[in-house]
Amino acid sequence: MAERRFIDANNLIEEIREERCYNCRNFKDMKCDYCGTADYIYMIEDMPTADVAPVRHGRWIEDHDYLKCPECSAMVKRDFTFFDIGDWNYCPNCGAKMDEKEDKHEDYT
After folding, report:
1. How many CB atoms are closer than 10 A to CB 60?
2. Hey, is 92 helix, strand or coil?
3. What is the separation of C-alpha 28 from the centre of its chain, rounded to a whole number of angstroms?
4. d(CA 24, CA 104)
5. 37-46 and 9-20 are packed helices; what angle lies between their axes, rounded to 10 degrees?
6. Are residues 67 and 78 in contact, defined by beta-carbon separation less than 8 angstroms?
7. Do 94 and 58 share a structural domain?
8. Are the C-beta atoms of residues 97 and 90 closer than 8 Å to each other?
């Protein structure tokens, strides 16, 4: 099965209108059936929506024996015997992916 992709349908419809409806400027706020392009727009508008949330990214903030999520501030107890910071690649509270790299900005001053 192909990987599911979640897209912004409104942006897609606008792109189609800009690309394909350039000879039919009246299409902006009304539906026309002059060409087959409108059929594709109707199909997109009629598709069921998926319940998805934007992916949040972060990097654990180390705080003594805890790790703090930068998105929701949840604290996760760090067990130094069995736990490595790389073992938790997402926050168990909010689901934020902990995949941001450490900032490595050079100081040019």
Report:
1. 20
2. coil
3. 27
4. 51
5. 170
6. yes
7. yes
8. yes
Query: What's residue 52's pLDDT?
Result: 81
- Residue at 108 is within a domain: no
Distances (CA, A) of 62 to 8, 74, 87: 36, 12, 14
pLDDT in tens, 11-55: 998 888 888 776 666 555 566 666 778 888 889 999 998 888 778
Total domains, the chain:
2
Distance of CA 69 to the CA centre of its chain: 18
Q: Is residue 106 part of a domain?
A: no
What mean pLDDT value characterizes the chain? 77
**73 Cβ neighbours under 8 A, 6+ residues apart:** none
What is the maximal distance between C-alpha atoms in the chain?
69
Structure tokens at 21: 């409806």
- How far apart are alpha carbons 85 and 106 in whole angstroms? 25
Domain that holds residue 88: 54-101
Q: Are residues 64 and 26 in the same domain?
A: no
